[in-house]
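Two proteins, back to back. First:
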Amino acid sequence: MKTFMNENFLLHSESAVLLYHQYASSMPIFDYHCHLSPKEIAENKRFKNITELWLGGDHYKWRAMRSRGVEERYITGDATDKEKFFAWAATVPYAIGNPLYHWTHLELRTYFNFHEPLSEKNAEKAWEHCNAIIQQDNFSVHELLNSSSVLCVCTTDDPTDTLEYHKAIAGLSGLLTKVLPTFRPDKGLEINKPAFVPFLQALEQSAGMEIHTYSEFLQALEARAAYFHEVGCRLSDHGLGALPYAPASEEEVSAIFLKGAAGNPVTEQEEAKFKTSTLIFLGKLYGQLNWTMQLHLGPIRNNNTQMFNQLGPDTGFDSIGKMTSPLALNRYLDALQQEDMLPKTILYGLNSNDNDVLASTAGNFQAPGVRGKIQFGSGWWFNDTKDGMLKQMSSLANIGLLSNFVGMLTDSRSFLSYTRHEYFRRILCNMIGDWVEQGEVPADYEHLGSIIQDICYNNARDYFGIPLPGYTIFTKVANV
């Protein structure tokens, strides 16, 4: 029987152990999609206690606590930070099988050198231990990023954002991490949502122009994309419950826009036409800027109306949907490809049943001279689990080239989430190690180790093309 989460955690063969410790474990991190706060990075935030750092904004943990029957006041309510921590500690022993159980203990070990399984029995000890470390002078956002070897972070930003904190970060010394914005215009696509008209008003202010027509709306988006590019942005992102494909004339879409801009509802078909036209425009724009486009497909958001009214979005009441039309996705990518304007694109699916569809779709639009131009992205959100990662990588390996994969991202609001990269790397090494042990691939550890290091970091560095000067200390580990 193995001890709980020892140095060979998740590594079930000699090959897996060798591949992880000799090749994967020391690689730096390129976090190309997350929800970290640029303000907290710019200000090098220091945290009051473990609850503020660990539980604030973490709707993964909140969902688990609700499932355990914890009262909302101990989750997002007016309970003290200590009471909230104790409520989480009491939940952890019952989270076995959920990645939260492993993530919790990886975070406690990595950042706090606390190696006991967390429970309500040792909650007081853990609370005091972790808070003592948090109060040390060197415990800050910058130190967390530096100590985790995070070389690049791409945050998620509204097109109307001033990006003042990104500009401030660019002038900092002592932070090894390059922090860049990501252009996420979701509010400008959701023409039937209450946030659409306020977004237009904010877009007018940020772009410095009035928006009376659909053409002016597109001009304003283009102006903001140019501004983001100047500040270092090289990625866009879209969160879409479903990707439509309903081509329409410019006159048709212009009329639909005017209805939405006036605050009037549009039909489902009209919404599909507006989104299709706008997404094609944006896809071409990203191609011109040489950006990478990310498409997150399949969530059903804010399902609990009562809790949405109480807490707002992104608080743990979302579900797995499905990609409603693989044909629409292929037609959208093809429309851009026909004009030679298809940018590098990463496809993420929230429903694991879509894995093979996405992996096969990526293969339809690859390009000469570009390794993996269209990517099937890592297990996302509800797929950010051991099983979910294995399913995603298995589909990619079966249908495409796993060796081209740009690897893991955190998709998190927490500065402690970089242990998820360790989790992913252990799973990756164990999968490839199993292939070696079963005689499915040669025991050429130098070659396999090179592929693993590419997936861990090198592929993302090369794919996004973001210069990271001064980090030559991170070189490939020689085979031993």
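And the second protein:
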Amino acid sequence: MKKILFLTMVLAALIFSGCAKKTEHKSIAVFVPGIIDDSPVYNMLVQGIKAAVEETNKSADSASQVELFIMEAGTNQAEWGQKLTALSAEQKYDVIISSNPSLPDLVEPILHQFPNQKFILMDATKEGNQNIHTVCYNQYEQSYITGYIGGLMSKSHKLALIAAQEYPVMNEIIFPYFVKGAQAANASSTVDFRIVGNWYDATKGAEIADAVAKAGIDVILPICGGASQGVITSAVNNKVYITWFDDNGFAKAPGTIISSSVMEQKKMSYNVTKEFLDGNTPWGVAKMVGIKEGFVDFVQDDPNYINTVPAEIREKMKNLLDELRAGNIEIK
């Protein structure tokens, strides 16, 4: 009788623990490698994740509520690895979601210490690690179309890309395909490549932009975070055009910014969060999305674009975008 009672208790415990496991709430940490309010990319990241969590929690009971924690790591990249390690060391987050091309290199050593931690990394690429899922935007296309309009608009045929730092995506995709786009528009186009050294120094960004303007460059693509504001200020003062990356930047300097190639970070961060909460994250897979899939685009209806860029150039851009969207052109 005692044995039957014991077995009954064990069975009940197993059933209870199984039920508890099913209703156990999930915990998500968002690691922002910067400051949310200073970066449209990180703002979109957080908005998308929040929307997915809030939607899930509306239909979940109290035991299944998703917990969300957001950490702003600041602009000092030297501290990101340490802060990300500390976040992982808490060992209470089912997944850490973040966005930056440099993050796969920071995450891999952390996984040696905390092999059970999962990461979803946006705007980054890493394939084959079963603890990591990455989603990158087709920056072959994004860089090419940005270079193409830069080449069409430049009168000196001299352009520049001012980057925060060098990293694989910058060196292997963004810069070379910006050059390809510019040269497709005008074979005489040349592109100067300059480095700020960080993602926040607006004074250094302005100094570099002043220097390239003096060298005759009349179109600049800044990809340098907070330092981009210094580049914009210099461009306005020197009457140099700016091509903009990642979000609609026309309002930052009407008449100076000639293009905005955008990525749908909010929509994608929502998608990957829902995918994770549904248990469908493709771990180890590096996904790429672009114009055809609706996650990279080029703003054509902003009044500042229409007022600044001549109609014949706008028509050429429309034709290029239509061909890419239809899948008739592949840029790689």
